[in-house]
## 1
Amino acid sequence: MKSFDDEKDGNFEASIPKELRNHLSVSNGTKFVDDVLKGTNESCLENFRMDKRVFFKLCDMLQTRGLLRHTNRIKIEEQLAIFMFIVGHNLRTRAVQELFRYSGETISRHFNNVLSAIMTISLDFFQPPSSNVPPEIREDPRFYPYFVNCVGAVDSIHFPVTVGVDEQGPFQNKNGFLSQNVLAACSFDMKFHYVLAGWEGSAPDMRVLNSALTRRNKLEVPDGKYYLVDSKYANIHGFIAPYPGVSYNQLEYGGTIHPQDARELFNQRHSILHNVTGRTFAALKERFPILMSAPSYPLATQVKLVVASCALHNYIRSENPDDWIFKMHEQPLEIVGDEELEHDPQVRNSIATDIWNDYIRDYDTIDDVVV
């Protein structure tokens, strides 16, 4: 099997981060993995992108289901470590060869075996929305009871891809880069409900959403529920976008600038909720930087890497929601502006009216107390 990194490598050691080069003195990959797994949780998280308990549980799961097995030379723990080390540090195969002391063929074979195993169980890690009101809405007076039927937020992200010269046209996005357009539905606790990867970078976002709603393995929106979308998408059944052309101020509480009308206030609250997609994508990229590098794998493998990474993101979030990568991105991002849309559904007007009426009532009460 040809290594994906058999092209010109130059000085491969230069591609290894400084903090990892001290491992080059170990005798082999087995000792390196043993040292990490016998060390601190922080060391395991840094090297293999999850703590030790979560790592061992995943190994047991893959072995129990018959998806991976020990070989004479490499145990399952080391196979998974190789995969996680590559996706978690975005190292070239030659650098990983030097670190683990295996041939490029061995590294590539185990990388692909682990990827296939994770893809096999990936659907187990994507859970549909619950019928309960998300606590992020239920426990925040800015959103409750107005968004009680909201189950999450949908957005797209572009990941760089490597494709042949004859395939590059459709994958060139509006910024001139080669990418795949990935659609994701996120819960408010920073998990992925659904991921659709592999669309060409030039594909319109609404076209990708329509594909997600009509394919066999489709994005399901529970009856009476909806996702929030940003201004790239139109308002269609099950999806609510912000009002078009309506600006808003970020200061709602404790400031001197306040929303001027119902639509501006709605867009502000909508944006605060929708930014969970940006935080979830940021955590995903932090844990799996290979997604941002256009690795020289076949396109099908690049697509699988996106899905597998999102599945592992969900698995780790469920098992250890407080690791430092998630903690880094739990605070809301800044609110961003809107662009023009075509539709204005009644449900959006109803929510906006209710929010505004309560907002005005609350401030009238404050004024009465002050006077």
## 2
Amino acid sequence: MAVETGQSAGSAAGAEGARGRVRETAATHRPGKPGKPGKPGKPGKPGEPGRPGEKSGVNKRPPGRIRNALGRHWYAWAMVAPVVLVIGLIIGYPLARGIYLSLTDANEANVERNIGMNHIPATYDFVGLDNFTAILKDPIFWDRLVWTVTWTAACVALTFAIGLGLAVILNRRFAGRTLYRSLLILPWAVPAFVSVFAWRLLYNERNGILNKILDGGGIDAVPWLNDPTMAKVSVIAVNIWLGVPFMLVALLGGLQSIPGELYEAAEMDGAGPWQRFRHITLPGLRSVSSTVVLLSTIWTFNMFPVIFLLTRGGPGDSTEVLVTYAYRLSFVNSPRDFAGASAWGVLILLILMLFAAVYRRALRKQGEVW
């Protein structure tokens, strides 16, 4: 009897709870006046719970990448902002100004200038791509480009080969290694113009040390800077002198990062010095060498001090590269052609950007990420 009574009470309570839920559901869906919560009608204000237009956490749009980066690294961005601003003013504005002038016919006679108390406004016109068309049709551009590419390839190849050889030698332990490293890095520490002037004294045809040494051996004096061929050899030699320390330091760091266990294992397997160099050293230096070759190419392509201070593009124009000719148009020739010099500068920038893109694509095909 007690069990039956408990079952009856439980059934009655369950039925009563079911009827309550039915009444609650019916009240919720009962049509009523518009605007009351829980009843259909006019949509309420966005964001209020239980009304249409509600912004729930699920429907919120995630913050963008830039906003997320600014929110997480705002302190770093605040520290970098002054540097970015200064670089933008130093590099960005001159670059934009140069691109604009390359699309005009600006020269010394029609730019804005002040003569005494008189202010003369600019009168140059926008000419579009006429400057670039004239340059590409000019054989002078192609002659300068061929010599610039030759000069760059020769300097980078010889600098890399000499720097790699010296790095391999200095990576070994021997007496006086620190002294040799310091002496080989010395040309990099000396300002470039000082080194160039020193080499100019060495190349002097009458009183230079090089010709004095040759004269002591019964050899006639060599016109180092007065003969077109010898002048090209001379400027390449000076640029190699300036570039080897950079290659040496970079490649020596790369060699020291290669584990010595690889060489020991290869030697135990019977690999000779050339095989170890080919299969261990060169692959281990690939990431470092790819970077230094690219940087050396850009620097050599735009190397102004060596050419200008040593030969000024001479004799004649045999050693003149693209950057020295652009300088001649803007600061030497009369009237000074600002638009033409700017167009030459833009073309130099485009050539280097094209080379960097092709070089990076070639590295990616070889599996290098740069």
## 3
Amino acid sequence: MQFFDDSLHPENMEKIVITVAPYGPEWAPEDFPEDIPVTMGEQIQKAVDCYEAGATVLHLHVRELDGTGSKRLSKFNELIAGVRKAVPDMIIQVGGSISFAPESEGEAAKWLSDDTRHMLAELTPKPDQVTVAINTTQMNIMELLYPEYLEGTSLANPGLQAAYSEMTVPAGPAWVAEHLRRLQAHGIQPHFQLTGMHAFETLERLVRKGIYMGPLNLTWIGIGGGFDGPNPYNFMNFVQRAPDGCTLTAESLLKNVLPFNMMAMAMGLHPRCGIEDTIIGQHGQRMSSVEQIQQCVRVAHELGREVANGKEARAIYRIGVQYDSIEQTLQANGMAPNRRAGEKGVPQRG
């Protein structure tokens, strides 16, 4: 990304798009009963509460009535329909890790089969976005979940810790290409969840080959355990190399969430919060998703940045937009063109 002398001035920045992940599939309802919705009505109301607090992107997972994470697409359809009716302008972003939790204690956490995950493209009503991982990666969420913050929660259970520590994100080349094809065919925008610079480089190659032709909405994930660690240098390296025309959201976990959100908002980028990322604030206190959104809004106001409403967020994310060619995709995302036959040196933007 290019930064000029006035790039940190709020009047030269897009409005802030706040993403919230309020369903926290890794936690059991008893871990934070005041803020983990279980019934369908509670899950819909949680989206409404988050929207009214200032979040315009809803990262969506679904629970069954017994509190476990749902793997039934019918439940996703029901929640999407309910949220769409209650807050029609909110961007609905379905989390692609729909089999996030282990089935039982001591069992490894596994995602659903490739074919089942492809069926996210057929959800009805269709979501605005589905998150897409690039490259198969270890996702050991336990690596940075310190024991003092897990005390008294379900994740203090050694069996569950072992299960989550062995989790991987399956996202090989054939699956990614087919998943992108299906999402684009159904008019659903992928939101790319990237584990580090290597994942973006693979995504860039997919764009340059025409496998994906659409806006680049990216989230950098600094959670360790196979992803980038929550080190500002990792984030800054990613920011420096991200294309000028993308949107970029910061994601981390526990007490790293607020610092990375503040860095992102100060640089004209976007924050993500919610109990999927942290259930505690900087002083170790329980902190609800709505309280985290309100905190982001306060920081945004201190920085002089405005918070986007639903319609503005849709325009910033270019929801519903697809491109007709590789060249158009590269240009729209602020990327240099592909090298033409016989061209020497660095290809220049037209």
## 4
Amino acid sequence: MISSSALKLSCPIPNGDFETSPLGGFPSEASAVRDGPTAIPSWKLNGTVELVESGEKQGGMILIVPQGRHAVRLGNDAEISQDLTVEKGAVYSVTFSAARTCAQLEALNVSAGTASMTIDLQTLYNVQGWDPYAVAYEAESDDITLAFRNPGMEDDPTCGPIIDDISIKKLFSPDRPKDNAVLNGDFEEGPWVPKNVSLGVLLPTNLDEELSPLPGWNVESNRAVRYIDSYHYSVPQGKRAIELLSGKEGIISQMVETSPNKMYTLTFALGHAGDKCKEPLAVMAFAGDQAQNIHYTPDSNSTFHTTSLNFTSKAERTRVAFYSIYYNTRSDDMSSLCGPVIDDVRVWFSSSPRNGIGGLGMRLVIAILVLVLVLV
């Protein structure tokens, strides 16, 4: 087992990349001699579980291995699991890569203890044939079982998802800034993003902000959003941001604390990820009962600009949300999903009236009136 101290930071789990050689070698090795299924070091197996190798074929189909030379394919109702020692009550994110094979409707169930989540693999977000995902769970005890199961039942019992490159990270809830009602508005706290992966990490639907792989935020819709890093994408500030995918089917939101009947301003950075995403790029931004369609305007000096939306709160909690107006794809392959980037989201109290005549504007109006009276 991994010790609880080891899980305080990001780390791959033992043989999470499936590159550790089984006893007797990998199935494709000429010297490998074994009876029955191959045992996979550090993992418990149930059902038809296969180690597959990059370039391996099944009929006329080449099996996709996301990282390295080897990965695992789960057949009908098959499962792999591993016992981990963690910190009871802490929230952990699990990052992994998944690819489809020969089934039409493939899904993957990921569980930690009694909590589980099923991810639909029907949508392929890029032309490489696989996607990284992240989910989050609260540790119910110091010892948990992390399991991946194929819930499908196909005529070909070997059909099923391929998984690879599994890591785990303890999540921390960032302190709420004094001048910002948004928690984790800079998106710096989130799941583990492998530096050798240039696809970002997909965050599937998650309606519980307490158990989100992106602390403070929910993904409300039936499609994922992409968590991106500055190593592979253009990020407005810091090292992390969110790329909105699939139009209205990819909504990210947060309930922020507000005072009823007070004026607030929502500001955020809107930009281009630098991933050859076809323009136009635009978001629909929501703050309470206000909504605004905002387009990204290219600038030769920057890949993003800051925009704002004024609103009056109606309650002690106000919903802030974003989705992409368009269904964008990359110009180099015309298939990989992409979209506008948001970052540095802030909600702050504004004493200015909605028409903008306040502060400096109000002082200017008063000065003009005084001047008129003096001249009269």
